[in-house]
C-alpha cells in the first residue's frame, strides 16, 4: 500500500512489506519517542482527535504522538457535543471537519462508522476504534511489541510461538493481532479460552489458510507451555448480553507469578492490551507479576506512541524530513534508555 | 471600528468599511487556510476557547484558526466544569480567565452573557454564540461565502439577489446575515418561510430602512426564483415551546435537486449554516444535491476558518507580520486548490 | 529539596530556602507571565493535564503556564473517560500515562491518590488537588501573593500579620498557606471563624511549634484589626454532611467595604482563593469591594500562572535556559504593567 494520504482503517490493508516499512520508520523515530531528541517536522500541522466514545489512553497516545512530531492537536471527546446529535449525517460531519485539520483520528461506537466517515473526508483518517470492528493502531503496536521483545532476545518474527489467552470471542485486539501475525512465516498459535469464548472461525481461517500451526486449548497451563509470547486479553464485558454472563468468565484464566513459573519458559514475554482489571475478583494478570522483567505491558503502551508517530509520519509524508527538524532534548527526562526497558 | 484589542460581540459593530478590511485580510490569509503555506505569527500566544454550551464545529473551527496562526489553544467545554456552578459571577470568571490567555472565544447559553463577560475581561473576547442573540463570526463567514461565490461568477456584492428560506423567526444566523447584507447597496431579499415563522420586524426594518428590496413569500418555488443565493436555514427546534410545535414545520420547505432545477437559475448558489438535519423526515437540503457544484455548504464551513483567522489577526494586530513568519507546507496535503472549489 | 525531576505533592516538602529559590525563579519569569516577552524553552515538551474532578481555573492556569514556556498540553477532564472506570489500578494508569508525557499535573477526588499515582509514575507529577488533602500550587501562589503585596508596600515576609477568616475547618487552601507561613519568622496569625469551623489542631500546632503568635477569634471585626493581610476563605459546602449544615455558616463572616473601612488598616490586603460565591445570600467578599485597590484576588489568580511556570521550570530543569529562548511579544497585549497592579 501507499501510506501517503491514505486512510488507516483496518489491519486488512497491510501486506508484510508495509509492516516492515512502518516498523523501520518506528525504529528511526524511537529517539524522538524516548525523549533523546525532539523534532518539529509537523510544526503547523493540525490533528483533529475525534473521540465519540471515551478513551483516555488511546486518545492521549495519539495526541502525544502528534505533538512529538511538532504538530498541534484539537480534540473532541463527547458525542453529545456533536452535531451528530442534531441529525447530521456522518458524511456531512466528515466534509466539515476535514476542512479544519490535516489528519483526523476517530473513535466511534458504531461498527463501520469510521470507514463511512473516511469516505467523505478530504484528509486522511485513522481509525482509533469503531465498536467491536477494528482498531488497527492497537494491533500494530502489539505486533511491534512482539517484534521488539523477540528481537531483544536475538530472534526474528518468523517461527514465533504465541499463546493468546482469555476472551478470544469478543477481543478485537487479539483478532487483529492474529491477522497481522498471519503475514509472517511459520507462526505457531495457541488459542486458549474458556469453552464458549473461542476465537471466531474467520480469524482462525486466516491463520490456517496461511499455513500456520494452530492449537486450541481450554486448559490454561497446557496452553501456555512452550511459547515465546503470552498474550492475555481482557474479558470484553461490554460485549456480553448481561453483566452476569461476563461474570461467569471473569478471573477464570488468571495468570500470576506461580502459574507463570510453573508453566512458562523463563523468557516468555507477557503482554496485555490494557487496561487490566485489577479488582480482586477479576485480575487477568496478577500484580505479583509486576516485578517480573518479562512483563512487557508498559513497554507495550510506550510502543503505542512510536507506532502512532510512524503512522502519522508516513501518512503525511514527512519521514525523510524528520531529521532536518531534530535537536537534543534540553529539559529533565527520566532515564528510559535500554537499561530501563525492564523497569 | 478599530479591530485592535476590541471585543467582537455583535454584527452591529461593523460598518461596510470594516467588512471590506476584514475580508481583505481573509483574502491574504487564504494560502494559510488552504495549506499552501504556514505562518507562526502568533507563536507563544494563547487562545482560551470557552464553550459553556456544546458545539463541535464552531469550537474546532476557532481552535484550528488560532493554531494556523501559530498560537496555542486551551479549552473548556463544560459548564459543570466551571466555577460558575459554585456561584461565581461572570465578572469574576472573566477577571480570572483573562489573566491566563491573550484572547478569549466564548459560547454561553444565556443571551447577553458574553457581553457581560467581556466588560470585565482584560483581553479581547469574541462571541461564539450567546443563546438566541448573536454569533457574529457565523454571520461574517456566511457573508464572506456570498462574496466569494458571487465573485467566482465575476460579480460584486452590490445588487445581490438572495432568498432566505425556512425558520426565519428563530434563525439567529439568518438575522445576522441580513443585517450585514443591509450594509451593501441595492440588495434584493426574498424572505421565504411557512406562515408563523416569518422574520421578526426589527430584522426586516434594518433592510427596509437601508432602502433594500424585500419580498415576503410563503411559497417555496415562488420565493427562490431569480436569485443569486439560496440560503436555507435549519428549524431551530430548541427554540420552540415543544418538539411537537417544531415538528409542524419540519421538512416543509425542503429543497432537493428537482425543486432546484425547476425553480432556480443555473448558477444559484446554495448555502446553509449547518448542521443540516439528514433524518428522513427532516431534510432541509436533500442529499441528492451533494453532487450539485452550486452546493456551497462545505466551502461555507471552510470559509469559517479563514474568517476566524482574519478576526484573530486583526484583533491581535499581527496582520502586517503574517508574511514574516511564513513558509511552505512540507507535509502531504489534499489538493484544495480552486479546481477543488466545487468538490 | 532538589526540584529537578521531583514530584510536587505537598507543602510539607518545602523548606524556607526552597520557597526563596522558587520565588526567585517566579520573579525572573514575570516578564513572560505578563506578556512582555515569550520563551520557547519547553518547545517539544508535553504536559499531561489530568483532571479526574472538574476545575476550570486550576486546569487552565496549569495549561497556560506550560504553554507560556513553549510546551504542548494534552488534557483529560473526566473520570468516566478513564480506564479507572474499567477497574484499572492507579499504579497501572500511572505507568501508562507517564510513558506519554514529560510531566503530569493531576487532580483527583480521593485523598492520597495523587501520591499513589506518583509512586508509579516515570515522570514528575504535580498534585493539583487530591480531595480535602493537598493542593500545593494554590498554597504557593497564595504565599507568593502575600510576598508580592507586602513587598509592594516596601516590607518583607518576616513579622507579617495575617487574619484568616471563614471556614477554617475544611479550607484546604488556608491550612496549606498557614503551614508555609510557619516557615517564616515572627508571623502573627488571627484565626477568625464561626464556632464549629475552627482550624484543626494539627494546623495550629505547626504554627505554635514554630513560635508564631496565634489569636483565635469568633468575632469578625475584632479578628481583622491590625493585620497586613486579610485572607477570606470559601465555605467548603461539599465537605459538609448536608447542604443545610453548610447553609448555617454561609454569609456569616461576610466582608464588605463598610466592614473593611471600619475595622481594617488602610493598606490591609484582601485575598481569597476563589471562586467567591456571589449569590446574594452567600457573598464572602462583597462586590462593593471591587473598586478597592487593596482587593488582591485577581492579582492572586494571575500569580498562579507565574508560580506554576516556576514549578515547571524548576522540576524540568530549564531555569537557566529560559532567556536563551526569549523574544519580545509582537501581538497586541492589554497593558498589565505595574501601573495596572491595582486594576
| Average residue-wise pLDDT of chain A | 91
The CATH architecture category of the largest domain in chain A equals 3-Layer(aba) Sandwich
Query: Biggest β-sheet of chain A: count, sense, barrel?
Result: 5 strands, parallel
The oligomerization state is homotrimer
Report the count of strand segments of chain A. Answer: 11
Name the strands of the widest sheet of chain A in spatial order. 8-7-6-9-10
Give the N-terminus to C-terminus distance of chain A in angstroms.
37 Å
* Class from helix and strand fractions of chain A: alpha/beta
At CATH level 3, the topology of the largest domain in chain A is Rossmann fold
Q: What ranges of chain A have pLDDT less than 50 throughout 5 or more consecutive residues?
A: 336-343
Global geometry of chain A: globular
Radius of gyration of chain A using CA atoms only: 20 Å
Q: Looking at this structure, what is the CATH superfamily of the largest domain in chain A?
A: Aspartate/ornithine carbamoyltransferase
Question: What is the tally of helical segments of chain A?
Answer: 11
How much β-strand is present in the residues of chain A? 5-15%
Helix content of chain A: 25-40%
Number of domains of chain A: 2
Amino acid at each position: 500500500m501507499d501510506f501517503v494520504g491514505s486512510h488507516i482503517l483496518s489491519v486488512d490493508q497491510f501486506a508484510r512489506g508495509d509492516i516492515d516499512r512502518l516498523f523501520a520508520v518506528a525504529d528511526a523515530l524511537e529517539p524522538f519517542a524516548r525523549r533523546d531528541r525532539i523534532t518539529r517536522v509537523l510544526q503547523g500541522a493540525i490533528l483533529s482527535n475525534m473521540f465519540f466514545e471515551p478513551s483516555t489512553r488511546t486518545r492521549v497516545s495519539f495526541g502525544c504522538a502528534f505533538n512529538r512530531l511538532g504538530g498541534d492537536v484539537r480534540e473532541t471527546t463527547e458525542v453529545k457535543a456533536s452535531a451528530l446529535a442534531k441529525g447530521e449525517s456522518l458524511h456531512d460531519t466528515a466534509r466539515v471537519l476535514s476542512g479544519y485539520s490535516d489528519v483526523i483520528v476517530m473513535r466511534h461506537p458504531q461498527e463501520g462508522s469510521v470507514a463511512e466517515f473516511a469516505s467523505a473526508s478530504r484528509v486522511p483518517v485513522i481509525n482509533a476504534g469503531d465498536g467491536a470492528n477494528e482498531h488497527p493502531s492497537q494491533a500494530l503496536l502489539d505486533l511491534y511489541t512482539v517484534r521488539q521483545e523477540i528481537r531483544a532476545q536475538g530472534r526474528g518474527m518468523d517461527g514465533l510461538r504465541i499463546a493468546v489467552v482469555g476472551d478470544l470471542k469478543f477481543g478485537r485486539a487479539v483478532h487483529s493481532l492474529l491477522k497481522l501475525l498471519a503475514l509472517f512465516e511459520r507462526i505457531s498459535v495457541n488459542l486458549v479460552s474458556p469453552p464458549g469464548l473461542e476465537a471466531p472461525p474467520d480469524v482462525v481461517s486466516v491463520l490456517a489458510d496461511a499455513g500456520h500451526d494452530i492449537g486450541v486449548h481450554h486448559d490454561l497451563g497446557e496452553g501456555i507451555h512452550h511459547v515465546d509470547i503470552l498474550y492475555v486479553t481482557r474479558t470484553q464485558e461490554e460485549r456480553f448480553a448481561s453483566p452476569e454472563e461476563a461474570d461467569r468468565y471473569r478471573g477464570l484464566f488468571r495468570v500470576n507469578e506461580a502459574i507463570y513459573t510453573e508453566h512458562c519458559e523463563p523468557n516468555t514475554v507477557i503482554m496485555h492490551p490494557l487496561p487490566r482489571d485489577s479488582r480482586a475478583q477479576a485480575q487477568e494478570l496478577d500484580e505479583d507479576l509486576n516485578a517480573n522483567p518479562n512483563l512487557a505491558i508498559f513497554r507495550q503502551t510506550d510502543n503505542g506512541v512510536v507506532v502512532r508517530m510512524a503512522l502519522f509520519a508516513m501518512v503525511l509524508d514527512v519521514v525523510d524530513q524528520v531529521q532536518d527538524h531534530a535537536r537534543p532534548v534540553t529539559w529533565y527526562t527520566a532515564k528510559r534508555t535500554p537499561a530501563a526497558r525492564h523497569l
